[in-house]
Amino acid sequence: MITLQFLQILWYALIVVLVAGFALLDGFDLGVGIILPFFASNEDEKKTMLGSIAPFWDGNEVWLVTAGGALFGSFPDAYATAFSGFYMVFIFTLFALIFRAVSFEFRTHDEKRKGLWELAFSTGSFFAVFFFGLILGNIMLGVPLDTNKEMQGGFLLYFRPFPVVVIFTGIVAVMMHGLSYIAMKTTGSLQERAFSAADRLWAILLAGIVIFIACVFVLLKANAGNIFLWLGIAIAAASAIGMKLSAMKKLEKMLFFTSSTAILGVFVIVGAAHFPNLVKSAGDSALSITIFNSSSPFDTLKLMSIVAIIGMPIVIAYTIFVYRVFKGKAGAGY
């Protein structure tokens, strides 16, 4: 028999999957955006890099919108607290995404200011990851909440050690993901440099992941007996080894696969360490917003589950179809 508790856990897991899907799919084009002005050596390489993500980048962001909608429908109290408490951060994130989207199109048509639009695309990509990491790190570490479930404190409160670790690891991870994608989608000198850069960046990413996991146990006091936590660590560790070997041996598909599974492994760690919290209180744990004290009623979650059972396979099938249509190496045009 389906219970309210089962549906609450189910929707927590689905939201983690949606956010992880966004990080996985939008992560590589955010990474390409960050490295674009510094990695491509000529106009043809820039066009190739942009052409490789052109069919996907806007569709990848739908996963984030879906995650927000799922949070609103299933856990409205958490949605209200997070979006009001991080209001300015979300505004900055929105501006970063807007600049990124506009610059992608304007670079094609505004020849005189092409360099400016490239910088806007790269900067927008960087700050989108920066602010997502800032939000995630603070949500996991905990924020001051009052009895009305409202966040207290100013903007500078957000820049604490753990969120900074999350920001750093996130930026390096999407850069690695972008490099692995470029290695998979290109040939020649551009591909060779992508393999070389991924090989050098690997040590920095590994350090970031190790520090992140250490902070999960020390600062977040995660339950060491949580099997899903150790599953995520195992996936991240195996993926890290796979990335190094793939970069050294220039295995393009395996490099992208292991980069993807590393991101998934990190989000398994996030979901396991944060459960059952949605917005963790930095003070009194009784004030934390969890999946059990903030969910929608049983009937709402049940109806949403029926819609998800019908809709998710369609979305996944469409995503697979799009990536199959545009598979293969990218050309110097978009």
Can you offer a commentary on this structure?
- The chain is mainly α.
- It has one domain (4-325).
- 76% of the residues lie in helices and 1% in strands.
- The chain contains twelve helices and two strands; from the N terminus they run H-H-H-H-H-H-H-H-H-H-H-E-E-H.
- It has a two-stranded antiparallel ribbon.
- Helix 1 (4-39) packs antiparallel against helix 2.
- The protein is globular.
Quick structural overview:
The chain has helices at 4-39, 43-53, 57-60, 62-74, 76-85, 87-109, 114-141, 161-185, 188-218, 227-249, 252-274, 298-325; strands at residues 277-279, 289-290. The chain is an all-alpha fold and 334 residues long.
